[in-house]
Amino acid sequence: MKKIVPVLIAIILIVVIGVVGFGGKIMDKYSYSKELADMDEYYGVSGNRLAIILQDAKVEQQAILENDTVYFDIDTVHQYFNEGFYVDEGEQKLLYTTAVDTVTALFGNAGYSDKTGEHALDYVPCMQSEGTLYVAADYVKLFTNYSYEVFDRHLQVYTEWGTKQTYKIAKKTQVRLKGGIKSPILREMEEGEQVELLEQMETWSKVKTSDSIIGYVENKRLTDVDTEVETPVTDYVPEEYTSIALDGKVCLGFHSIGGPGGNDTLDSMVAEGKGMNVIAPTWFSFTDNAGTFRSFASGQYVEKAHSYGLKVWGVWDNFNYKNETGSDIDTVQILSSTTNRQNIVEQMTATALELGLDGINIDFEGLTSDCGTHYVQFIRELSVACRENQLALSIDNYVPFHFNDFYRLDIQGEVADYIVVMGYDEHWHGSKDPGSVASIDYVSNGLQKTLEMAPAEKVVNALPFYTILWKTEGSDVTDEYITLKNEADFLKRVNITPEWDEETCQNYAQWQSGNITYQIWLEDIDSIKVKLNVMSAQSIGGVAVWRLGYGTSEVWELIKAYAGS
Predict the structure, then answer these.
(1) Which tens digits make up the pLDDT trace of 95-109?
(2) pLDDT band at 141, cuts 50/70/90?
(3) Under a CB-based contact definition with an 8 Å cutoff, are residues 551 and 253 in contact?
(4) Residues 265, 271, 277, CA angle at the centre, nearest 5°?
(5) What DSSP assignment string belongs to 117-140?
(6) What CATH number should be reported for the domain whose range is 161-229?
(7) Which CATH code, of 3.20.20.80, 3.40.228.10, 3.30.470.20, 1.10.10.10, is assigned to 250-465+524-563?
(8) Confidence (pLDDT) at 5
(9) Whole-structure pTM value
(10) What local confidence, expressed as pLDDT, does residue 236 receive?
(11) Buried b vs exposed e over 420-433: b needs ≥16 C-beta within 10 Å?
(12) Measured at the alpha carbon of residue 131, what is the angle toward residues 130 and 136, in degrees to the nearest 5?
């Protein structure tokens, strides 16, 4: 018996140890972890940096806290809040153009200026650090509809407000990094605290706390569901842009003037342009990289045009002087200087008022993407001056494609009075690619894309009063312009009868002479009629023609009927 007792004791001990060990494992498996999450790691911040919670998600970009002021880098401002801020690195300026003014903040200065004078602030609106421009969150709020709140390691930002579903915490619990009792703790929650529901799952829900910590809570800890309407917290008042609009549709004729003598052809152009209510003489062209422009303008021309009942919109371009002289200019250099732009705007406005012009037409072609932001800022600044002086601002544009989207028809549609779509040059002189100048799909698709970005009443479609005769000999392709007015004589001379092409909605002809293949897609009364029908269906703001002197009376009768409809 004495020998059995120790054995029994040993067995009992083994059993007890096993039970305890097993129970420990069970308890470990089902007990709640007390591990705290590393919040710096959670937010991915250090030093003076703050994570950005935009709406209900953390974004990649971060803010910084400098002298108790929150700053965003300029790329973050552009991406999430307001793309209207313009940076002039050369002149160390941050500009923001409203409907009525351009506001300027100098890098590192505690204030800004506008047309009313200097305005001091208790913070620096913009500053550079390690080659990056940062803009104060409060300064952005002056021009932007958003709100923000600063917490220990992060920033809650709202740009939109709607409704949210909320719960109360039923019993003391934790918000965890992930859904699971072993997940690290982000925040302790007391009974009665409120959380916003972001995503509900079977046993856990993704929530956001009152201090914008996003994590997971067990569903059994949630009670008293409610729906709340979010209240915007902002002092921003949206801008109102005023526009000049003609009575009825615009019917604009571009008057190509290559020298002072061209002004003498006004009478004949007016006689041709039946139904025309706007004439746009190509008077002004940049001559250097400072923005100086040459002029063929005539006050007498303006007076006579007015006597015919016409509005006069003077055309400024960036290419004709180069075409005339061969002297190159750099539009990027011209427009990337704030001093240049403001001087150009001042000179254009003064010139227009001195001549008695009714409007300014901008025809800047061949721009590259690196000019985009500068061009848009120029348009914004010019629109302010035009609005202030009751000058109509119209802007000429290519048919929109992804490669020219930096012309920003959406912004033009907001700040300009009219957007002129140059609905031609689908195939252009010198392209070595025979095809239509303006097929119906090219025109209709161009209008459709434009109308996705700009209001219909501001859109003017420009028609070509010309076509191109293509000549192909082997691999060599040459071409020549033929005006609408001269087409009939040309076809008679070559003894060719074109046939209607349904795909392009144009009369088309192809013939052979020796080793040369000739092709022509005609612009004539038939093709123009189809284009005008498409324009009527889109209820756009009007029609323009390139150019006066190329048309026929029959086509002008069609245009007159369209413009008067």
Answers:
(1) 999 999 999 999 999
(2) very high
(3) no
(4) 100
(5) EEEE-SS-SEEEETTEEEEEHHHH
(6) 2.30.30.40
(7) 3.20.20.80
(8) 65
(9) 0.93
(10) 83
(11) bbbbbbbbeeeeee
(12) 85
